[in-house]
Amino acid sequence: MKSLSFLFVVVLFTYSGNLYSQMGYGNNQTRVNPSMNDSRMSDRIAEFEKENNKAQKIAFDKMLVKIKTDLNLDELQYYAIEKTLTNSLRDQNILMKKEIPEEDKITQLLAIDTRTDIEINSYLSKEQKEKYKVFNEEKNKRINNLKTNFQKQ
Question: Which pTM does this prediction carry?
Answer without folding.
Answer: 0.64
